[in-house]
Design goal:
Number of domains: 3
Helix content: over 70%
Radius of gyration: 50 Å
Transmembrane segments: 182-201, 208-231, 237-255
Coiled coil: 56-97
Strand content: under 5%
Strand order of the largest sheet: 1-2
Protein name: Serine endopeptidase
Structural class: mainly alpha
Bound molecules: zinc ion
Mean pLDDT: 85
Largest sheet: 2 strands, antiparallel
Keywords: Coiled coil, Membrane, Transmembrane, Transmembrane helix
Low-confidence stretches: 345-351
Length: 351
């Protein structure tokens, strides 16, 4: 494709390659948007979709109620403990004062004070009873808190069991959804790849080749790059298998093309000089000469050596003499560079 030596044509071709790349980038953007929107085809799944909804809700409400009860019991327990310590210190104070009083009394041994002993003992008993009651209240709240905690734990365990069953089902369903989404994507990108293959085989040299190549770039990118982030684990297999298949097809094509080229070259080198000259396009011949290779067989030749008029490898004439002024000139030149006379040999026109 880059056989031309004309400067503007070269730049036009580069511009057209740019068109191909820009076309490909817009197609890639569009394809990426479509592929990115594909998961929205499926509604997202939640674990609740796989639970006995009423049973789960009931359990959740029970757990919540038990937790609340535990909290209430805890608050009540703190209150009861406070009451108990108040009464305890009261009892302690009363007992201390009574003991002191008793010890003074035993020293004085006054019989008239006996009823007071009785009264104070009774008062102390009442206080001790009150202390026992606060102790009972504390124990009752401790029991209530413990019951509530255990009830909550039991319900929670039941709920967790139920949810873990739900998660197993959810994951199984998610894998199915992933596979489905992957297949949608594959169904979208694989035909693109097939079309790209067909375009490569049939249309890559057509007038509209920049669009053809743009589409080929897009299809390759969409399949091998854009599909990747959406591929579930097994998607890797598809990518590599298709990649191997495509490489094998392209490689086989390239090997055959090389063989065809060598075959053609061999046939061409067997033809007479004039025939071979006609086969070569003017621009191709000039491009090869500029690279110091023989235009006929593409092997290196020392063009600066004025003694070499023919290719030592294939025998094609490289230099001849002008029919008018006999100046030594390139056999591929259309006009004599010394006198401007047209070359006797009519070269094949460029493509
Ligand atoms: Zn040659
Ligand atoms: Zn001349």
């Amino acid at each position: 494709m880059s056989k031309s030596l004309r400067l503007s044509e070269k730049w036009f071709r580069r511009g057209l390659w740019l068109v191909a790349l820009v076309f490909a980038s817009f197609l890639i953007g569009l394809g990426g948007t479509i592929v990115g929107d594909l998961p929205k085809v499926e509604t997202p799944l939640r674990v609740d979709d796989f639970l006995d909804k009423t049973a789960a809700d009931k359990l959740r409400a029970e757990v919540k109620a038990a937790r609340q009860a535990e909290q209430d019991a805890q608050t009540a327990l703190e209150q009861a403990q406070l009451q108990r310590s108040k009464v305890r210190s009261e009892v302690q104070a009363e007992r201390d004062s009574f003991n002191n009083w008793l010890s003074t009394r035993s020293a004085t041994q006054r019989a008239d004070q006996d009823p007071e002993v009785l009264a104070r003992t009774q008062a102390l008993d009442v206080l001790k009873l009150a202390e026992r009651k606060t102790q009972q209240a504390v124990e009752a709240q401790q029991q209530a808190a413990l019951d509530a905690r255990q009830a909550a734990a039991a319900r929670q365990e039941q709920l967790s069991r139920m949810e873990s069953d739900g998660y197993v089902k959810l994951n199984a369903e998610r894998r199915k959804v992933e596979l489905r989404v992957f297949l949608y994507r594959l169904a979208l990108t694989l035909p693109l790849l097939a079309i790209a293959g067909w375009l490569f085989a049939k249309q890559r040299k057509s007038t509209y080749w920049p669009f053809v190549w743009g589409f080929i770039f897009f299809a390759l990118f969409a399949f091998f790059v854009e599909l990747v982030p959406y591929l579930p684990s097994y998607g890797g297999y598809v990518r590599y298998v298709v990649g191997i298949a495509v490489t094998a097809v392209v490689g086989r094509y390239a090997i055959q093309a090389l063989n065809r080229y060598l075959e053609r070259q061999k046939l061409a080198e067997a033809l007479p000089d004039q025939e071979r000259r006609k086969e070569l396009s003017y621009d191709v011949a000039l491009a090869r000469l500029a690279k110091n290779v023989c235009p006929g067989c593409e092997r290196p030749v020392d063009l600066k050596n004025e003694k070499i008029d023919f290719c030592p490898h294939c025998g094609i004439g490289l230099f001849d003499h002008c029919g008018h002024c006999s100046t030594r000139k390139s056999a591929f030149a259309r006009f004599c560079h010394a006198c401007g006379t047209g070359a006797g040999v009519k070269l094949a026109r460029e493509d």
